[in-house]
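Lecture 7 notes: from sequence to structure.
We start with the chain below.
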Amino acid sequence: MTDMEARGEDRVVGLLLAAGGGRRLGGRPKALLPYRGRPLVEHAVGVLRAAGCARVHVVLGAAADVVRERARLAGCVIVTNPEWESGMGTSLRAGLDSLAGTGARAALVCLVDQPGIGAEAVARVLAAGRDGSALVSAVYDGVRGHPVLLGADHWAGVAATATGDRGARAYLKEHARAITLVECGDVARPFDIDTPDDLAHLE
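Predicted structure tokens for the same chain:
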């Protein structure tokens, strides 16, 4: 890889939202759910790196100190969201705030509780846009989902509308015509780990 290519990859930061407390899972923090012998957050960081994100910021909330202790997150920038109980929107805002002054031109946003979305799907979204004006979303059989790539030009607008568990949804709906859609349904499954029944996906 040339220095120029390395700098180009460095301009897109992986932003992993991993603050959820797993309310419907009996209060088990999602970042610590076991997956292939290690905490789920480790798997998600590995996916972002395998997809081409040299830099990864991880937003923690529920049991943040325990996650730091148990999960191997060396090389990641850890962002603690004290308002995580107010919903994913606060974690997205905290994550975007952490990118200020880093030189990043885009954030590739993934959710910790979607282990069915692997590096191939994430790499497709990453390849579709790397500059500050980019808006890219994975779609699954035409239905928009994660990961989502947000160019820096959009961060302020996303942060202003990210409330509750909506994340970037309102902003993306308002700017739907500007989004590059990348079909990933052939290589990934976008299920969430939300309920005890969903834990079967981790086995």
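Points to note: The longest helix spans residues 40-51. Helices lie at 3-10, 40-51, 64-70, 88-97, 119-127, 155-161, 169-174.
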